[in-house]
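pasting input
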Amino acid sequence: MNSPARIEATGWGWRYAGRRSPAVRDVTFRIEPGERVLLLGASGAGKSTLLAGIAGLLGGDDEGELTGRITVDGQRPEMQRGRVGLVLQDPDAGVVLSRVGDDVAFGCENLGVPASEIPTRVSEALDAVGLDVAPDRATAQLSGGQKQRLAIAGVLAMRPGVLLLDEPTANLDPDGVHEVRAAVEHAVTAANATLIVIEHRTQVWADLMTRVIVLDADGGLLADGPPDEVFARSGTPLAAAGVWVPGHDVDLPLLQTVGDAAPVLSARALAVSRDGRRPVRTGLSFDVPDAAATVITGPNGVGKSTLALTLAGLLPEFAGDVVSAIDMAGRRGRRPSRWRSRELLTRIGTVFQEPEHQFLAQTVRDELLVGPHALRLDTAMANRVVDELLERLGLASLARANPFTLSGGQKRRLSVATVLATGPRVVVLDEPTFGQDRLGWISLVQLLQEEIGRGTAVVTVTHDEGVAQHLGGRRLALVADESVEGVAA
Amino acid sequence: MSILTDQGPARSTAAPALEREAWLDGVNPATKILLALVLSIPLLASIDPVSALVAVGLQLLCVPLTGLRLRRVLARLLPILLVAPIAGVSMLLYADPGGRVYATFWHATISDASIALAVAVGVRVLALALPTILLFGRTDAIDLAAALAQIVHLPARFVLGVLAGTRMLGLFLDDWRQMELARRARGVGDSGAVRRFLSMAFVLLVFAVRRGTKLATAMEARGFGAPGVRTWAHRSQLHARDAVALAGGVVLIALALAVAVWAGTFRFVWS
């Protein structure tokens, strides 16, 4: 059996080549074998860089400039391949091969583990994360939570002395979060390894951890100690830096739920399909109320995103139809799927799950101008709309930046702003709070509340109970059981 | 309704378990590559309908060995069936005339010789495509990679890099669909299809670079490229069956050419 590793950082720092200031500066700590550390810090404080440094994956002088040193069991991490196991945030990024068994074996093969020993290691690792699927199962068919557990199993099979997890649950639904949390707890016990986790959602992980280390964005550490102590002492600055701290709730109003209201969109006996060949959901009849939220919830694979895209007039109805209020009708009638692309702009705006999919321009400002230009607003009017939005969403200082270079929270706000620029009656959003830290979350929910206050109908798909509570309106819970095809109000 | 259940999501998970092991599944992918060459190169040396037809006929007789359903083979042949006549038509119009001439316009002449050549070329395209479909229709990419690295001794870094990269293709397809929908949502979906295509292609390139970087990090984090000798959980080995398969391929192609010689239609490309 392997033994847990000791990690020491002494005045450690890293500056990526081409950047003026270092990503991490002057970090010193000593993590004893078997400790379980929650690594926190504001966005951009360099948490991921630190993990990559411990894993020995930052590269050489070409890639950046190193100061101080990190050791694993007293040696440089680059010399310790296999001793350190790193799992990345994006579940799709962690999977290398197309079959479960092969993927778990991949690390062992690279380390030169004898072929006869590999099957045992693979099944042990799959057991440790509770992934009970056949080894020849296609990795593409796994859910997000399963993929993330697979990635952890792939690392465990290498029998590492330390397990590094970079926001392992940020992109998962509540079931996936629960699965991965349980898998990690079981795995660190079984694997007898030191554990370091980066995660904004501290309440999920706090009770598993023996220690919290908080990176200061200006270099060094903000706090270091047992979880309770750190949260009590540094709770307020942590919350202000974007970390979800237990006991620091969000200071936003809870909007009212609505009963009967004039509908802006109505679905009648609607069946939705992603590819136009096979329905993912049938028999949906409901109204989207005006000037209120409609929150669509339900487990993965139940067809929430497909429903949202159909309501937004982007996918044609598979059966039944979606019709708008009479005063919204386009040249070709009341069905959004029949409207022209330009007609959608003032009627229904859609915010995609991945903001980058909807970016079209080279600068933030031009990005916001796309909609007004398509509407053929005159220049003065278009500029006024854009200036107001830049101000309102706190993007004014980034007006000339390239949208692709923004942070996750900024990209999300920009994608919402591009939609608001044309003032649509309905805004449809798919998982707007995915992967957002506390600050991103608050600014987004606040924005949506404002829009509802201005009379916009907001339709959002979400796994986030907090979003549903704060937006109120009407709840549409899709159920996995196919016999229940209707909808609860 | 039966069509619906046949194509439902359950199929993809249940089907692999139900599929029986076929004789060809026991042949090493490296041997299959060699077989594909054996079955196609001799056909390139001759242009006549008989050898190609006999080869196609004999190969279709081998379908039960491959574990593929005939219907699936035909479905995969369909694109080739559509392309083959195009190759044939150019021969029909522009080959050296000979025998009776049926029609002439501009530089094109349709004659007995050009008709014969058109048929021969059309059938030959089929005969060249069919072995690839039969041999690799059920070959797993991972097995192929293992064979390329262990039997053919291509560098493991290269083979595994390509293998991991191909997994990204499905993700790109999703990206593309989302971007199409997003352009409609943003009011620019009505016109300018070419410009839209170019801008989407550029964004996809950005995604490709970023995904590639992430994948490389994930692979490195699992010891990819570590010093020392890499092991393989699945040994890729050659068995007696590989020799049998290769011999079978040689006999098949020899038979096809022999029949052509016997029928008097055999003709070297350069003669």
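fyi The CA atoms of residues 37 and 281 of chain A lie 43 Å apart.
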